[in-house]
Amino acid sequence: MVAVGVLAGLSVLSLLTYGYLSWESLGLGPGETEATRTGLGEGLGAGAPSSQPHIIFILADDQGFRDVGYHGSEIRTPTLDKLAAEGVKLENYYVQPMCTPSRSQFITGKYQIHTGLQHSIIRPTQPNCLPLDNVTLPQKLKEVGYSTHMVGKWHLGFYRRECMPTQRGFDTFFGSLLGSGDYYTHFKCDSPGICGYDLYENDNAAWDHDNGIYSTQMYTQKVQQILASHNPRKPLFLYIAYQAVHSPLQAPGKYFEHYRSINNINRRRYAAMLACLDEAINNVTLALRKYGYYENSIIIYSSDNGGQPMAGGSNWPLRGSKGTYWEGGIRAVGFVHSPLLKNKGSVCKELVHITDWFPTLITLAEGQIDEDIQLDGYDIWETISEGRRSPRVDILHNIDPIYTKAKNGSWAAGYGIWNTAIQSAIRVNHWKLLTGNPGYSDWVPPQAFSNAGPNRWHNERVSWSAGKTVWLFNITADPYERVDLSARYPDVVKQLLRRLSQFNKTAVPVRYPPKDPRSNPKLNGGVWGPWFKEDEKKKKSDKSANKQKKNKNKKKAN
């Protein structure tokens, strides 16, 4: 009988993982869960259910603003559409233009300028990670009794063991440490000859899980296992950072069926990847219901940055793409779905930023935010749940002092307030200001994907006057950034430049070290992983201390 039960459980798990499964097919009535029918909750633990909600944060990778059904995409996303329609759509929601910055701001509630990660991303070979003196969201949630689990892409550094997810607040971790890799083999080459395996379970390479399973499905399986084994009466924080839909563009064959009419091969592969991701999220929500979590859960969905048109993503009608500070790089797909919401089925057009999740979720979890933590995020739960005004009036998109300087930028162009050669972007109320080199600035309409490309012939391009390094837009009136108002409203430009200058005074030095040859996976058993040993650091410091003593003694002798 036990064996039969185990086999039955595995068959349901495989159905949940590899295809859509309707709630009725599980034999459950409306509003009924497996936990309520069988008393699963009682069997797993005594006492009343926790008043603290289960928090499920799902982060997609490189999903474009247009790439969801309810934004008009040709790619079908029935699960995302349904969850968003029954929850609250965030239609004035901002993230950062690349992977590491968004993830660091989510997990700390701080802008990049306050963690030292304001330039680019953390590269595989860099001795760099999210600074250890930053308190993380899972650490704060553990303080108030949460079990914390992470599944998916980390991308916050790993050169020391102290940088690993399990050392930063997660009870368990299953996923990848790097920014990208093969979806089936989990190998990643950073450069010719610098290649390694990148799949971890907690602090060790997960060779046992190397079964050629597509990562989106494999991560979903792991989520289901966590939900099946945890007690739903105890609060749970589950951070699911899917690899999809980041390049390389790979997907199981069956997901191409509905998209063979898309001529552009990158767009077709991207569509298949997104279809698989949508199905995976359906299976996660089914598992939340099945194991008794759903009624006391908050599901948050977010992309980490804008889409990359050259890799199949679309941000139309927004301008720009991933890696830029135009709206197409930083305005994201996002929604909250929860039975605990007061205004279900609504749209939130208030200003929300990815740093806001840190204080919002800690407050919902009945935790405390230390007074000495200087946060950049705000508690926006009442804004989302009840439709109140957002406490946020501005967003520092970033100040990157070491990004390639704009050739014609100067202090004079910044009215003596700011050097416009520096790449920066800020939003204050309706106004958005950009300086320096904001990045690729085309609008890429859907027809650009008709041929292999996308074909630049279809892109809308603007030739700015030579030497331009300041742009001003009223984003509320002009969300597509078509009308530059910097010449018309110089006083507004000056106000925003002063705000940039104020932020810059609080910035910490940039952390962007050169690559370390010891990071080569060949020196670490063929695996990407921590290479910086603490004893080596001590030996170096001891050697330098000895040298200093010798030099002092020489001086004294002289």
From TrEMBL:
Gene3D superfamilies named among the record's database cross-references: 3.30.1120.10, Alkaline Phosphatase, subunit A
Protein name: ARSJ Arylsulfatase
Record keywords, A-Z: Calcium, Glycoprotein, Hydrolase, Metal-binding
Lineage, uppermost ranks: Eukaryota, Metazoa, Chordata, Craniata, Vertebrata
One Pfam family, short name: Sulfatase
Region Disordered, residue ranges: 509-558
Gene that encodes the chain: Arsj
GO MF term list: metal ion binding; sulfuric ester hydrolase activity
Cofactor(s) listed in the protein's UniProt record: Ca(2+)
Similarity field: Belongs to the sulfatase family.
Stretches with biased composition (Basic and acidic residues): 532-545
Bias-annotated ranges (Basic residues): 546-558
Annotated ranges, domain Sulfatase N-terminal: 53-365
